[in-house]
Amino acid sequence: MPVFRFILQRALQAVLVTLAVTLFVALAVRLTGDPAVMMTAESSSVTEEDLIRIREALGLNQPFYAQYLDFLKGLITFDLGNSFFRGSIADLISIALPSTLILAVASMGISILISIPLGIHAALHKGGISDQIIRVLSLVGLSFPNFWLGIMFVLLLSITFPILPASGFETWSALILPALTIGIILTATNVRLVRTQMLETLSAQYVMVARAKGLSEWSVIYKHALRNAAIAIVTFLGLQFGNLIGGLVVVELVFNWPGMGTLSIEAIAQRDYPLLQATVTILAIMIVAVNLAVDLVYGLIDPRIRVA
Question: Where is the chain membrane-spanning (predicted)?
C-alpha cells in the first residue's frame, strides 16, 4: 500500500514538527519574562506575596514540563484556559481563526484566478507586447508594500468614493478590500512563477510530441503542459499560503480585521502571555497542516513522489 504508507509517513512527520513547534513556542514565551510580573508591571503597590499568589493561581509555580503537558492537553481538547484580561482563549480563537482563514483563502483565490491565465498567456506570447505589459505590471506589483496598497484602497474606495467598508467584518463586502490588497501582491509573484514554469514545459519534448499527434492547443496547454508545471506551482502556492496565514498581521491591522494577527498584536500589547502562546501555537499548527496538505497533493499530482 504505497499510498497509505506515503500518507502515514507525512502525517507522522507533521505530528513531530507540531510537537517541536509547541515546545519551542512555550520556551520562547517563557523566556520573555515572568507573566506575573508582566501582569502587574503598571502597578506600584504589588508585593512579593501578591506575585506568589498570582503564580499559584495561574499554575506558574509548577515545573516547566508540567506546564507544557497541561498546555498540550488543553491544545488537544481545545481547552486553552483563560486570557489574563479577555476571558476564554478558545472563544477568542474560534472567532479570530475563521476570519483569518477566510481572508487567506479569498486572497489566494483572487491571486490564482488572475495569475494562472495571465501567466499562461505571457508564456504563449513570449516577447510580445502583452508579455511585456504583464511582466512590467508584475514588477510594479512587487514594488508595492501591502500596507500602502491597503491604505490607497481605503482612501479611494472607502473615503473618496464610499463604495466599500474600510474596516471590520460586519458584512461580506468588508472582505473585498483586504482580500484584493493581498491578492494583488500575491499575483505579482505568482504570475511570474506560472510564466516561467509554462515556458519550461512548453519547450519540453513531450509537448512537441503531443502537438505532432494533432492534439488541440487547449489539450496541449492545459492537459499536458499545465499539469506538469503544476508540481512546482502547487509547491510554491502551498508554501505561500502557509506563510500567508501567519503573515496577515499588517493588513489585518490596516483594515481592523478581527483575525489571528490582530489578536496576537493585542496579546503582545497587553502582555497577555496565555493568549500569545495560544495564538502563535495555533498559527504554527495551521502552517504545518498546510504543508502536510501540500505533500499529499504532491502524491495525487505526481505518483512518483509517493515512493520518494
Answer: 101-124, 136-159, 171-191, 229-255, 275-301
Q: Where residue 299 falls among pLDDT bands split at 50, 70, 90? A: low
Tell which phi-psi region holds residue 33, choosing left (phi > 0), alpha (psi between -120 and 50) or beta: left
Distance of CA 93 to the CA centre of its chain: 16
52 lies in a domain? no
On whether residue 175 sits in a domain, the answer given is yes
**Total tally of structural domains belonging to the chain:** 1
Per-residue pLDDT band at 302 (split at 50, 70, 90): low
Parent domain of 170: 89-301
Task: Output the CA torsion sign for 79, 80, 85, 91.
Answer: negative
CATH code, domain carrying 143 = 1.10.3720.10
Cβ distance 294 to 239 under 8 Å? yes
The three cell numbers locating residue 214: 494533432
Residue 56 lies in a domain: no
Residues facing 82 on adjacent strands: 88
62-73, pLDDT tens digit by residue? 788 888 888 888
H or E segment to which residue 82 belongs: strand 82-83
Would residue 214 count as lying in a domain?
yes
Would the pTM of this model clear 0.90, i.e. be above it?
A: no
Distances in whole angstroms, Cα of residue 57 to Cα of each of 31, 46, 52, 54, 84: 20, 16, 9, 5, 11
